[in-house]
Write a structure and sequence with these properties.
The protein is mainly beta and 404 residues long. The protein has helices spanning 32-42, 136-153, 281-291, 333-337, 379-384, and strands spanning 52-62, 65-70, 75-88, 112-119, 125-134, 154-163, 168-173, 176-181, 187-190, 202-203, 214-221, 227-236, 238-249, 254-259, 265-269, 275-278, 321-322, 328-329, 354-360, 368-376. It folds into 3 domains: 33-140, Beta Barrel (OB fold (Dihydrolipoamide Acetyltransferase, E2P)), CATH 2.40.50.140; 148-236, Nucleic acid-binding proteins (OB fold (Dihydrolipoamide Acetyltransferase, E2P)), CATH 2.40.50.140; 239-384, no CATH class.
Length: 404
């Protein structure tokens, strides 16, 4: 099953789901507008030789002192000096010349700020002469609008082909073939190697997109919905693994497993960003009954099998129906449940346990990867599918930015 996940995926929706190999995991996208805010707020401000800037989220305000957590996770104490300029930048604006002056008292916990000034005498402190403010309420409003826009004007699927000359991307979405037209105005983003969170995506290029990548696009659709003029494109590529654990080191945050499809032994780093879940025995048993015999051992999971999806959410009735690859689809019902599965800890795993994982793709020749998601409690599924577990590549996500 060590192959790229081949399914529609979601980067923002009402249930905040995440993509996965045999599951979707919840992903908080509350920082999505914050990413935009960071770019908007930081663009017009450049630190001079005698000044510096810190950007982050307000955690406390006391008098003229603001405690903030930076995007790197560091705590910074910002002392707003007398006469400092405090400007409120509207969400969506990139011009601080239009930002009105506000009072320090208008800064609240949860707001985003960009403080510029000189490093203070104490470690982790900044004497700010200017603070750019973006209100959390405005960010939330923008987030809701963007989520709605993704749902109505978004599409998602698997890249079939990329034409660098025209900028056109051919996308397989369920049983449909879509054409994603891009231009110089299209914003490209790329998921980081160890996260499928939108807020962790980095600016990318058309040249990074390859066949079999997962891709989500947002823009104006043609009347038949098969052609999209993309304003934003988010893409990524991940590795699917399933097998039995051969070692567990909770202290170092690593596991090793022998992948059923390729027979390779992978070292998997489990980090704070890795989402660990455990499937209840009864659920695993039910899905195993629907998908037994699904593994082909080809190691090509996700390269085919999209015909099983219809473009709307699958149901339990779809379970057991083979896709184009001849593998079994578990239906879309698991995608509705997985975000509610109990979380798990690495210390609870032991040698011999069966797991499924979505991981970063290793560098050439390497078998060390980083887990994006890790699902345990899947013994019945792998027992029923000894050549690589379930192929859920035919799923379509009903609540993703692509909508129905």
């Amino acid at each position: 099953m060590a192959a790229r996940y081949n399914s529609n995926f979601t980067c923002c929706n009402s249930s905040l789901q995440r993509l996965g190999l045999v599951f979707l995991l919840s992903s908080s996208l509350a920082a999505m507008p914050v990413v935009a805010a960071q770019a908007q707020a930081s663009a017009p401000i450049a630190a001079t030789a005698t000044s510096t800037s810190q950007r982050g989220t307000v955690k406390a305000v006391a008098g003229n002192t603001i405690t903030m957590t930076t995007d790197a996770g560091q705590s910074v104490t910002v002392h707003v000096v007398d006469g400092a300029k405090i400007l409120q930048l509207a969400v969506g604006s990139t011009d601080i010349k239009t930002a009105p002056a506000v009072l320090l008292s208008e800064i609240s916990v949860g707001d985003r700020i960009l403080a510029t000034g000189k490093v203070g005498d104490a470690a982790g402190s900044l004497n700010a002469v200017r603070v750019i403010l973006m209100k959390s309420s405005d960010i939330a409003q923008m987030q809701a609008a963007q989520q709605a826009d993704w749902k109505t004007r978004g599409v998602g699927g698997i890249v079939s082909a990329v034409d660098p000359g025209t900028g056109a991307i051919t996308l397989t979405s369920g049983a449909k073939k879509l054409t994603i037209n891009t231009s110089a105005k299209t914003q490209f983003k790329r998921f980081s190697s160890d996260s499928v969170k939108y807020e962790n995506a980095k600016l990318g290029t058309l040249g990074q997109i390859q066949a079999k990548d997962q891709l989500q696009a947002r823009g104006a659709k043609s009347e038949d919905g098969l052609t999209i003029q993309a304003e934003e494109v988010v893409s990524g590529s991940f590795l699917n693994l399933s097998g039995l654990l051969t070692s567990v080191d909770a202290a170092s945050g690593t596991i090793t497993l022998k992948d059923l499809a390729t027979k390779k032994v992978y070292t998997v780093n489990v980090t704070a960003n890795s989402d660990q879940r455990k499937m209840p025995l009864q659920m695993a048993t039910n899905f195993a009954a629907h998908t037994s015999g699904g593994g082909s051992g080809s190691g090509q999971t996700g390269k085919q099998g999209t015909a099983a999806a219809s473009g709307t959410a699958g149901s339990a009735g779809a379970a057991g129906q083979g896709g184009a690859s001849g593998k079994r689809s578990a239906g879309g019902d698991l995608s509705q449940m997985i975000g509610r599965l109990p979380t798990a800890a690495l210390a609870d795993l032991k040698i011999g346990d069966a797991v499924m994982a979505v991981a970063s793709e290793p560098t050439q020749g390497s078998t060390t990867v980083t887990a994006v998601t890790l699902l345990s409690g899947v013994e019945p599924i792998l027992t029923a599918n000894p050549k690589g577990g379930m192929d859920l590549s035919g799923w379509s996500m009903s609540s993703g930015p692509s909508g129905e």
